[in-house]
Structures are given as C-alpha cells and as structure tokens.
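Could you please consider the sequence and fold following this short note?
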Amino acid sequence: MASSSSDGRNLFEIRRFEGMGFDLWKERMQGILFLKDGDMALATIKPENMLEDAWRILNKKVVTYIKMAVSDEILVDLKGLESASKIWAKLKATYENSTHVNQVHLMRKLVGMQLDESKSAAEHLSLFTGTLSQLQDSGMAPFFMTSSKPFSC
C-alpha cells in the first residue's frame, strides 16, 4: 500500500499542549525531536563535537518546534526564553505530574466534567478514569477516594 506525503506529515503531528496530559505530550514531543535530530538541544550543555553555529541553529529549531506545539496561554509563560533546555525545564517544572499546578489543573478538570451527549458513555468513562489516574500518579487522591468507609445515605 503506497502512502502519500500527507500520511507521513499527519503521522508526526501532535495536539498542542494546553496544560493537561503533559507526560504523554512530552513523550510524543521527545519522539518528534529525536526524529528531527533535535533531541540533543534539550541538554543544557553543547556536545563537544558540535560547532557553535550548528548548536545555535539546532537550539533555535527546537525552540520553534516546542513553541509551535503549545497553546497560546502556555506560550505566554515561555516568552523570553530562547534556550530549548530552559523551555523544557520550565515546562517540566510547571506541568509534570508531581507539581501542584498540574494537580490543580487535574482537580478542576475532574470537578468541571460535564456530560457531552455527542460522546459515548465509554468515552466519558475513559476521560474520567484517565483524569483520576493522572491525579493518583501525581500523588493526590481526590477526596472521595480517600475515605475508608463506604458512602451511605
């Protein structure tokens, strides 16, 4: 089966990071950077065998890739950062599972969930359990999961 150029292009597109699901977005972004030979730019120190101009160009490309893969709201927080390693460190510090900011985002998402009648029950359940799982991974269990007694009226 022959593939068109658009198939390859779509294969490496990822959704913009909007503050939720950083761990999965990070994995995809690292994969794209690796495929584009840009993963080295996430290091804080230039490889010894790389020329300064090549390092500068690589860093600029990776900064651009990352900034194009985040929402406008997150991009505002990255404004002024011109080093790929500094941008990556800021994203990790802010959105990795163990941070309080991420925990607040997840709790808001969980509390604000509403039924969307255009989605199936399985999709709702998947979204709900995924959010709960992310909260548990972050070290925070929602209040209704911490009770040792069953709920009764």
